[in-house]
Write a structure and sequence with these properties.
heterotrimer, A mainly alpha, B mainly alpha, C mainly alpha, B: mainly alpha, C: mainly alpha, Helix Hairpins, 3 helices, 62% helix, 0% strand, elongated
Amino acid sequence: MSNPYIVLPVLFQLFVAVILMFAWNRKNLQKLISVVGSLIALLISLALLIKVNQEGIQTMQAGGWIAPFGITFVADTLSALLVVLTATSGLAVSVFSVGSVRNARIKFGYFPIFHLLIMGLSGAFLTGDIFNLYVWFEIIIISSFVLITIGGEKAQLEGAIKYVAMNLLASVVFLTAIAILYGLTGSLNMADLSLQVANVSNRGLVNVTAILFLVGFGIKSAVFPLYFWLPASYHTPPPAISAIFGGLLTKVGVYAMLRVFTLIFIPDDFLTTVITVMALLTILSGGFGALMQNNIRKVFSYLIICHIGFMLAGLGIYSTVAIAGAVFYLVHDIVVKTNLFLVSGVIFKFRGTYSMRLLGGFYKEQPLMSLFMAIPLFSLIGIPPLSGFWGKLLLIEGAMDQSNILMIVFILLGSFLTLFIIAKLWAEVFWKDAQELPKKKYIRYFDELKPLKKQAMLASVVFLSLISLGIGFGAEWVMQLALRIAENLMDPSPYIQAVLGS
Amino acid sequence: MKTIIFKTASVFLLPLLLLFSVFILLRGHYLPGGGFVGGLMASTAFVIHSFANGVERTKNIVKFHPGFLMPVGLALALLAGSLPLFLGETFMTGLWMDQPVPVIGSVGTALFFDTGVYLVVIGVTLTIIFTISEGL
Amino acid sequence: MEILLVIIIGLLYAAGIYMMLRRSLVKLIIGLILLGNGANLLIFLLGKIVKGEPPIIGSTEKMLGELYADPVPQALILTAIVISFGLQAFAIILIKRAYKVVKTDDLDEMNATDEDL
């Protein structure tokens, strides 16, 4: 169904960014605009999700050029759901930034760039054109480059160089893949490509293109042999920025894989084997990497990698149930990973360090806050009523259907490693006796902040924890949504029909 | 490069190139040209001026921080792109005036979008060049 | 023409990857620029090179009659060039800043991100 308003989530973020740029030097006004703007953006995206849920797939042809000639925007349930989650994380991080981001960073345009990043993410989820997806990816990476370097500390710049180099390489690989795909089919519209690629006689070249896409998206979503940039960079910027990176940037790569490998390239046995092996090794290397770390933000960085493996495993199993599991896990992971980095930011504000060895006694000092921090940590492990459990359940069910014992073993191993890591982290950071830490001059500790800033930081953690709880307890609803999304992904004919007409 | 010939020429080249960049911007709809090329040309004018007279002089000519052109251009482009949305058309649909305007020709939202691009390109390029040339 | 382009693209990719594998940051950027140019030429090549007319329908005709050049690859290349222009400018400023702060352009000596804190 044609609907010109589905680009509103994207346009509104651009609008907020432009307004923020006009208010360049007025820091408090910027904070207000950013929070209010994020709230309105959340409402707009919720409206879009409700609309899609009621009336089916919505499309928009930019400039009125009919598909497959123009650029198409498509909002199916997966896209709309991810746009809502982007807006949710965006709101939480925007509120957190009010409390935590230093004025020096705001002066260099932190808030406008942040909203441009959210715009890029929403655009990437909504577009139905492969080259347009590339453009949104570039918008995402260039805003993330600015965010990761803003402030210019030594570790930040070094992390940024690694991040920039790998992401630029990923873009080139992605662009190369698009070039070959265009040469093969003469089309860029994803729905049209779905029909065209099936007719290409040169299957070898199609497989090579698929592998190129896998490598390009693999670098962006940090899967096994391509993840080394992530733990080298995600712990360097301020926590608010890490949160939006950890929550959303890798997930956009996973979304692109889910989309491309269900719509354009239907994986054959070779491709599913490659994806499966990558997924298993990602789980393993992320889990063991996290075990070795002492910096809590690095632990979370490796856990991102470990849990990307779960989503990829869903794609590797390639059945409706398993993909539903991957989608459920994606939903859960966006909220939880954003929250974890915010939690690390709050802990840092209290103690002035990220080192697990030096931290301790947080539970005794802040029992209520610790309870809210426990929710994302335990969701991550997948303790039953919490949100991580249901995604894993679906994944294991999917693997069981294909009697894929190896996959089940690795998923359980990954969960067990996560349990071990979180238990260690909980014991070290929350239960261990507190030690006297020397006060550092350049850090503004939590007690020295204004009440509004304190409340902003804590409120965003509580907000995301409650959403995590909501996903866990409202699992039936989310699961039905995930199953419907998976059905639509496995059988893309309604998508193609909505874009191209009958 | 601060020779007297280059210095003298740069003073005359600046307005000429700026005028030419506007010409390139306006002819862009049907002929080669447009906002991006025009914007690059306009920033080249400032670059030539800064080569001849030093960056500080050029900064004095521009008066305001070139970064300010970015939100202005973005706002213009956003407005031109989303104007059709208010009339029930899809985003980026070209709306055209019925009567052509003398000298310029027919005017539509595409022109305003291009002007937005033109301003953003000048803003971005000058910001980049002023930043790179800092402390060289 | 096609054979020539294929050779150039291959050389650009090979040189780009070779440069990226060096430890110097400046060479890293050069490598990325070469790779980007290689990708752009690849789009140009795969968009099928024909000696055709520009794809503009005259005011008296209803559809394209002559052999025409595909405008899409050119639009893609233009977009990709604009994007890589921005990214490369950013990367150059980044390595300049990093050089000032870290005082080296050797990637092997950038170990602050591996420190244990």
